[in-house]
Amino acid sequence: MNETCCGLRVGQTVPDFKLETYEPTENFFGERSLDSLKKESKWTVLFFYPADFTFV
Known about the structure:
Helix content: 10-25%
Largest sheet: 2 strands, antiparallel
Number of strands: 2
Radius of gyration: 13 Å
Order of helices and strands: EEH
Shape: globular
Number of helices: 1
Distance between the termini: 21 Å
């Protein structure tokens, strides 16, 4: 993510971003974006968990 995202408040739109993902049932690494989830009408929960680099 090239832009610094700070100061978002409840109800504000989150900027689009892409993340590398891992699908353990298919043993596959891929990429997802917020825009693709919106287009698929998927429920999305975003959370920030600092200083922890384990799979959730």
